[in-house]
Amino acid sequence: MAVLKIQARIQCDGCGTNFLVDLDAAAMRPKGWSLYDQAVDAVRGGIYEVPRGGRHGGGCCSVQHGLCLCASCTKIVDEHTPDPNSKKQVKRALNRYVVPLGAGAA
Fold first, then answer.
1. How far apart are CA 1 and CA 59, in angstroms?
2. What span, in angstroms and rounded, lies between the C-alpha atoms of 13 and 15?
3. pLDDT in tens, 82-94
C-alpha cells in the first residue's frame, strides 16, 4: 500500500475561509513536531486549494506572525503593511480590509 495524498483543512485567521494544504506523505516530521506543526509548515509553504462545489481554486497562503492566512488575506497584508511588518500592523490591515466570512449574509 502507498499513501498518495494527505491534506489538512485550515481556517484562515483573517477571514475564516477554509482551505486545504497538502502534507508531504513521505516526509519525516522533525522530532517533537505534531501533525498540527506539519500542517502550519505546509501553510508556510504557500500553495493551497479551496474546494468549491467540485471545482478547486488555489493560490499562495502564508503564516505571518503566527496567523495562517489564505491567498486573499496574504495579498491584503502584503499590500497594506511594510516589509518587514509587525503583528500589530498585520492585524490592523486585516481588521481594516477583510470582510469576515458570513458578514453581510442575510
1. 31
2. 6
3. 999 999 999 999 9
